[in-house]
Amino acid sequence: MAQRRLKILVLGSKGRLGSSLLGSLASKHDVIGFGRHDLNLLWDPERIKTSLREVSFDVLINAAGDTSVDHSETREKDSLAANAVGPEAAAQVCQDRGAKMYQISTDYVFGGDGDAPLSEEDPTHPVQVYGTTKLTGERKVLAACPSALVTRISWLFGGNKNSFPDRILEMALSDTAVSAVADKWSSPTSVEDLVGWLTFLMEERPLAEGHIHLCNSGSCCWQEYGQYALDVAAELGLPLKSLNVEPIGLKDVTNFVAARPRYTVLNTHRFQETTGIIPRHWRQALRDYILTRYSKEG
Ligand SMILES: NC(=O)c1ccc[n+]([C@@H]2O[C@H](COP(=O)([O-])OP(=O)(O)OC[C@H]3O[C@@H](n4cnc5c(N)ncnc54)[C@H](OP(=O)(O)O)[C@@H]3O)[C@@H](O)[C@H]2O)c1
User: Fold this and answer.
1) Ligand 1 neighbour 83 (Cβ under 6 A)
2) Ligand 1 center to residue 189 CA distance, Å?
3) Among residues 285, 31, 283, 9, which one has the least CA distance to residue 158?
4) Domain at 7-159+189-217+261-280, CATH from 3.90.950.10, 3.40.50.720, 3.30.70.100, 3.40.930.10
5) pLDDT tens, 198-234?
6) Which residues are known catalytic residues?
7) pTM value?
8) Contact in structure between 208 and 197 (CB atoms under 8 Å)
């Protein structure tokens, strides 16, 4: 049976995830993208609701938010508005019109003290403002719109912005000394893969609600993540000045303002059971990204 054409509104359409969603969904669905100027999550909630009520949509994906972990520490009020109060207003509009809402959240809702992959039922305990406001957002969205799906994701790469592996490559191209934290673990996640999983959930599993964890398989620390990026870049023949990422400790990073959780690897069993999809390993996804983005032909 042909897939029903959905009317989808993406908030945060200029961001890494939002712009990738927009690009990918437009061929199959009627997609509208709202950037910060079209709808600012810092607006009064009534103004947010009025703006949303003027748009026709049956799915709303909120990929917008205050995503700067360090800046959030010193602007708690705005972070709460962007990550929780604004999304709550969007959720109320979705509830009123029977639209499906996807709220994008983060592995940083966890405290990071454990050493086993975290499921949707594991206790949350954010250790910085960013994670705290994102967790409040999860709760407010689900309270306002119980059919919403909150998707927690981790360590995105790809899309329209540079991320960790690109920064490591930039450093290795210009510097002989490259280092990264070796005592903090999570799962790198390809934006391209994430867009595919979200699309499948939207099209094929519209009744999935509550929380779901989405990330590539496997886990690593930043040092291993960066080292693999360099290994693939070396294979491609990029003129790297450094071939190694030296390990450092989280405590050695002096410019972090916010505390970082140590271990936030997400368990994706619920996603696998819901969809039958097994996310590919992060190494395979990262390899494809680097080969596509940095090959001479690319
Ligand atoms: N990137 C990661 O590694 C990661 C990891 C875990 C979870 N997440 C979550 O995934 C989602 C998408 O992340 P991303 O990497 O795509 O982030 P991003 O590139 O920073 O995009 C976020 C977007 O939100 C917009 N925005 C910020 N404040 C806003 C406001 N007050 N009103 C309206 N729009 C606002 C930004 O607009 P401007 O373009 O105008 O600044 C930006 O386009 C976020 O919810 C984030 O918390 C990301």
Assistant:
1) no
2) 15
3) 285
4) 3.40.50.720
5) 999 999 999 999 999 999 999 999 999 999 999 999 9
6) 130
7) 0.97
8) no
